[in-house]
Structures are given as C-alpha cells and as structure tokens.
Amino acid sequence: MNSVLSLRNRLAGWLLVGVILTTLLAVFSAAVSSLLPGVLIWLVGGLLIPNLRRAQLWQIGILLGIGLLCLAVGEWRGSSPQFLRRAVEGNQMITAMLLAVSFLRLIAMANVDPQAPLPQGKRALLRTLFGVHLLGTVMNISSVMIAGDRLSAARPLSRVQALTLLRGFSACALWSPFFASMGITLSGVPGAHLGTLIIFGLPAALVALLVSAWQLQRLPESAVAEGYPVTFAALWLPVVLAVAVIIGHLLLPEIPVLTLVTLLALIFSVGWILSREQRAGAARLQQHVQSALPGMAGEVLLFLAAAVLASGAAALLESFNIRLVPEYFGVLAAWTTLLILIGLAIAGMHPVTTVALAAGILAPHVENANLLALTLLFGWGLGVCLSPFSGVQLTLQARYLVRMRDLALLNLPAALPLLAVAFTALYICARFTGQSG
Fold this sequence. Notes:
mainly alpha, 19 helices, 2 domains
C-alpha cells in the first residue's frame, strides 16, 4: 500500500512539474494549447485525492459539485463555451505560480538555524512580525510553520506569538506578487496592473503591520514572550525577488505578471541550488518534486474547484441574463463588496473561492479594474486575519493547539482599525484611478 502511494505521489510530482512547464510554454508559444496544463491538473487531481484530509475532501467536493451543476445548466441554456474552457484550464496560472514559488523554500530553509537562541521581549515580537511578513511574501504559509515550529520547540506557542504570526502573514495578501491572493486577483481581473496594486497595497500593509505592532506592545505578556530569530540571511530572498518582479514587469510589460513570477521563481531557485550544491542540490530538487509538490494536494485541488465554481456561476448568470453588478462600481460598491467578502470568510468560505467567484461575476462588467482588484486583495487579507476558519488560523489551532477563542478575542480590538485602513486605501485608489463616487 505504501509503495503504491509513493509511486502515485512521484508520478503526481512530475506531472505538476509538467503543469509549470506547459503553462509557461502556452504563454510563449501558440503551438502549445492552454488546455494542456489544464488537462494535466485534472489528471494530478485524480491522483492526489487520497492525499486529502476528510474536511478538505468535503469542501472541494461541494465546490466541484456546485460548479459542475451550474456549468451543466448554463450549457443546457446556451451559455458561451468559454466558461467550460475556463473550467478545464483549472486556474493553471495561479497553480503553476504557487508550485514554482514552492521551490524557493529550499533556499530559505538553508538559512534557518534551528539552534539559534530565541530573543525575548517586545522588540523580539516586532522583529518576528515584520520578519514573518517578509518571509511570507514568497513562502506563503510555510513562513508561519517555520517560525511556529521554532517558537514551539521548547514550550507551547503562546497566544501573543500566534497573533504575531497571524498578523505578519495575513498582511502579505495586500501586495506580494508571489502570494496566492495576487495570483487569483490578477488572473480573475485582467485589466488590473501589478504596479498600481503594489502602490496602494504595500503602504496599506505597512500601516496594518504598525497597527498590529501597537496592539502587540500593549499586551502584558509581550514583555516576556519569545520571538523568532530573524536574520538578514533569511530576508534577502523575498526582497530581491520582489524587486526583480517589479523591474521585470516594468521592462517587459507584455509578459503576464503571473508568468514572470513563475519563471523567476523557478529559474532562481533551481539555478541557485544546482550552482551551490551540485549533486546534493539535484537530490534535494528531486525530493521536493516527489514529496513536497504532492503535499500541496489541498491547494491544487482547491484552486481547481474554485475555477470550476467561478466558471459555473458565470455561465449560469449569463444563461439567465442576470447581472449582479452595480451600475457604477465606485468606492461605496468597493466597501460593500469588501464587507461581503469578509463576512463570507468569517462564515467559513475560503478566500480562494470567494475572490475567484467575485472576480468571475464582477470583472467583466467593472470599468475600474484596479479598484476591484484592490478590493479583492483586502477581502482576502482581512478575511484570513479575522476569520477563525481561515487556513492559517486552522493551522495555528491544529498544529500548535492555539485556542480559537483566544485568537478571536485578541483580533477583535484590531478589526475596526484594519477596516479603516482598508476603507481609506480603497477611497484613495478610487480617487486616483477615476472612480470616486
């Protein structure tokens, strides 16, 4: 049984490498159909179903079931065949990007010293907050687990440490070109520009982090809490890559941002490891392909299910000629959309689902693509931060036994300030991008 599972994982891992490569080829060569990586994703999905936990299986199964039903009704009523094609393509760009970015963990982990002493006090927590944020920009939720495992090695993770990790991580969603939120948003809102989103999202993320820093310093236990030993060696990677993506986007605007991120992450990580470690590096890359990539089964299948649901909902709405978009998507509509997204997140819906669904419904009819995209980024970031059912909060609860109630009570005082940051950023964006009403 174990040998069969191992063989299945190895095959799935190499097929996922194929997803990355064929996605890139489909962008640069008209000879490669965008359906090819989509078909590979569906094949991998079938192989990786046994890797899912029961809760993931139910969530993904429900999303797929609803999406397929909506697609069927839409096709029966004569909706455009483009929706079925989108479902088959299966969010390939965001999937390829996250798979490629996962290779960067091999570089980041090489700079982690498990024996380094843990600093203590308020300053240590602030360094942890900003350090986890920077690491999270390219490593996603892995940054939380790296820091969390280190902090909980000798004693259980405290609630103030958990809050620090949560806040540092969730702010990444507002601006990072390597984060899943940006990938889903840019693929779902084609007219949005990475540079514009970073201009508004990065300052908002900084203000959100400062709000969190202020709150953390006011907690009595912060004076004796241990922080993660952040070093420059661990932080140079996200800074260099973020700058490289921005410069690359400015120099080569015709290349889609997700393609640029995927290409840079893959070339940088593979080239760095092979040049420094030779045979040992090749072995580590092979291990990553055959073990770590199949371990991303939950993410791969969730993105696939979200693509089917978004395509199905759009097909159904078109077939019934239903329009859920306000006549004028200005700042008030953006605020309303944000509150709905946060409410859905708190109710338990994953941001991948809500953001993909909102983009599929709104993007074709909204003129101000950047305002809509920024709204979706805030919906993702605040949803992750405030919802006790978000992936990172469930990780903190299950992996480190942090109580849901503790995080909810600690988060409550920051909810209004974080909403104020979001509302202000959306208002400024609306004013400067032409939609102020």
